What does this fold into?
Amino acid sequence: MRLGCIADDFTGATDVANNLVRAGMRVVQTIGVPKDAADIDADAVVVALKSRTTPGAQAVAESVQASEWLRRLNPSAQIYFKYCSTFDSTSKGNIGPVTEALMNALGTTFTIATPAFPNNGRSVFKGHLFVGDVLLSESSMRHHPLTPMTDANLVRVLQAQCERRVGLVDHRVVRQGPDAIKQRFGQIEQEGVSIAIVDAIDNEDLLALGAATADMALVTAGSGLAMGLPAQWGFAPNASAQRLPIPGGAQAILAGSCSAATQRQIRAFIDAGGAALALDPVQLAQAKDPVAEVLAWTQLRLAKGERVMVYSTADVESVKAVQARLGAQVAGELVERTLGAAAQGLVQCGVRQLIVAGGETSGACVQALGIDRMQIGPQIDPGVPWCYAHSPAASEDGMHLALKSGNFGSDDFFIKAFEMLNDEASV
Ligand code: ADP
It folds into this structure.
């Protein structure tokens, strides 16, 4: 195990794991900090936390606990604190406090911070974060309900969250390559800087930064830096890093995302003749045993060898109408609980290839399935890999899972994902 990542949310963990796998590392992702440090065979381990918006003290404690657990797997592993490429945080944190707590825990005096991920339109220039062609503070992130980002100057943003001094390694230095970057790190550390925001506007910059930071005890970044690090430790893209066990069993899709992309993907699945059951939250609230009804419907189709879909996905107007009747929170929880229980029932009935659409929905399903770790496999679409996991609901079998954040994936995602998984297995 060469690299231990601590991700501040679930889909962010899968995102960084996906980049590491593509760069040739075998990656296991754990859900939270596991109780034991047993039998993990991987080049990198990603611990998925939910620490982006939790109270600072809790985020710090969980992150330090994760780093201690990772360091038990390998005391000299590099620790990579992964946050969002839009630097999602409040004026108090949690990026700054977690970074400083990890520096203390690891006994290191210098680290970097860069959310740059040019492939996804996130670039940092002169310390300012751009989202596509606009500054972070002019992007839709300025209206985010929990972490509104109203300042694009990352030195200023991070400094407000930190006790240590924050500085900048700007693009003039980065483009000169790894040696120049390292030299600059040394200079600014002498000047009293402990955390350097580093500019990166394209993949070449991230590769140079990877070479300059491969020996650091701690790096902090979005998922972009994960493209540049593995090569420094001798990893190269290869098919075996992403190979998962051969898939089997029945196929199912559960969708609780109401995003535009998921709506299109569901339409495409139904248009292609797929068997799909729509859930209406108002009816769910009135039904005696909604999960039993769902499973009765799916069992009939599964028995005929069909792949099944169950979805609560609806357009904006319908969601608003439901929320007006039930309340947004109640409606959301009801759907998540139903789809989670459906996931468990489907797997008990023999489903071993499951796609879940929606970030919160994925969390609910993974929890209901009692999954505590996943092996990361090949990418279906950017940010969404196939994974392999064990669930008590599948007794001794393993199962394949794809957890799709709402807005990710092409319109034909569902059919393409199953085809890809089963085609790869037959090669
Ligand atoms: P995304 O990744 O698109 O944000 P999530 O699963 O994270 O998807 O969030 C979608 C939320 O909307 C969940 O809490 C889900 O339970 C809720 N939801 C799903 N369908 C409906 C619906 N028809 N009416 C109201 N809320 C819904």
Summary: The mean pLDDT is 94. The pocket of adenosine-5'-diphosphate is lined by residues 256-259, 281, 312, 314, 319, 322-323, 331-332, 335-336, 358-361, 405-406 (CB under 6 Å). Residues 249 and 352 are 5 Å apart (CA to CA). The radius of gyration is 22 Å.
